[in-house]
Amino acid sequence: MGKLLVENKTIVTPGEELAEGMDFLPAEGTFRDKDKIIASGLGLVNINGRLIKTISMAGRYIPKRGDTIIAKVTDILMSGWILDIASAYSAVLSVKEAKDFIRRDADLTKYYDIDDYIITNIIRVTSQRLVDVSMKGPGLRKLIGGRIIKANSNKVPRIIGKGGSMVSMIKQATECSITVGQNGIVWISGSPEKEIIVVKTIKKIEQEAHISGLTDRIKTFLEKETNKKINIEKVE
Amino acid sequence: MNREQKDYILNFLEQGVRFDGRKLEEYRPIKVERGFSENAEGSAKVTIGNTEVLAGVKLSVDEPYPDTPDGGTMMINVELLPLSNPNFEPGPPGIQAIEIARVVDRGIRESESIDTKKLCIKKGEKVWSILVDICPINDDGNLFDASTLAVVAALQNTKFPSYNGNIVDYKKKTKESLPLRKLPVSCTVIKIDNYFIVDPTPEEEKKIDSRLTVEVEEDGTLCALQKGGDKPLTAEDIDKMVGIGIEKSKELRKFL
After folding, report:
1. Across the interface, do A145 and B21 touch by the CB < 8 Å criterion?
2. Measured between alpha carbons, how far is residue A214 from residues A204, A217, A219 in Å?
3. Cβ–Cβ gap A145/B19 under 8 Å
4. Which domains does chain B have, with CATH numbers?
5. What SS3 class is residue B69?
6. For A115-172, how does the pLDDT look when each residue is reduced to its tens digit (9 = 90+)?
7. What is the model's pTM?
8. Partner A contacted by B21 (CB < 8 A)
9. A193 and B5 in contact by Cβ < 8 A?
10. What is the pLDDT of residues B34-92, one digit of tens each?
């Protein structure tokens, strides 16, 4: 039987031994060296049955298949667009993956121009970290108006909350449209003073993500900022 | 530049707010810390919001220029570190760095802040030369105003090193300050469509039509101007922008 060398939810550094024996399996942020499982990144250990992973607390976004992200068009190719996805790698949107059929000689800037922001979905990440995205799917579109803010991609789960509870609470309180990309880019659109509240709230979540009782604190914060009672039952 | 994003900013400006909740003619919180570096003769760190700029003054004894044999010399240099903004490249200074350096230099030179005659040690042979280095640590917009403020604060903080007529001992500082007179303050006024704003954030800096850096002396006299941006300005625009600049410079002067 294998042996765990660390407790769940402790902070580990790269190279730290997490477990011994072949019973445990390395997941994200860990690797196996002979019969040991070793951390490859700085973060919190998460032990889920036999799976051991580390959850990083900082760092750039690492693209993953299936993630819905917000990306910025940085260049236009012969047959597609190059996107900045707030990661170390850029992504490519091919004309084949655009929403509508695009003719061969079409002017691609008519669809997505440089500096446009789009909501898109990652369909492929190769071992060489070439990222392909697609616009085919519900809710994937070009963003018009609104503002973009950048948050830490590792805090995205906190911003969204369990089953989207946090983000819908912010939406309910501020009446803004909010889209959170898995890469930490957030799009907000609403009235000027409400948008500022959303930005403040997201910054607060980012800072206090690790302290428990986050939802209640954000609820009081939003109630204070908007002078309005938030009905949390309605949110869930 | 993306038209929709600009329209969105304009919609905000129409309602009299900016993206970060400020009013159109409102600065972010400003902080000036003097004597930041021990090894420089004078230094200051200025923060405007998240923008941080360091300025350091070094003094050395040099030969004067042939056309001003009894005047000290001054040189201002800006290095835009890649540390402060991912768009800055290492290497020789680019257009932006040179522009900031020249605008700051012009403000100080034309306001005649430094009494250069008093920097003369021996006419035609030895004068004090002032070298100012500006280093942005974080560029969150408005490097012009932050740089001028940092340089002026650093000059105020400067103390001469001891000099025995032969060598300068940088380890020992005297109590003597630089011969300063009128000090300039710079206020950069931005025009976007028909709106005038001050202290732009990087988002706003990308969308400007034109900008005018107004450098003002204590009594409200203009000492330097610098126009930037792609679009022209009318005479009324300039009138208005200079007015805003003079008004706002009073606020900035409180930090000197």
Report:
1. no
2. 10, 5, 8
3. no
4. 3-253 (3.30.230.70)
5. coil
6. 899 999 999 999 999 999 999 999 999 998 888 999 999 999 999 998 999 999 999 9
7. 0.83
8. yes
9. no
10. 998 889 999 999 999 999 999 999 999 999 999 999 999 999 999 999 999 989 999 99
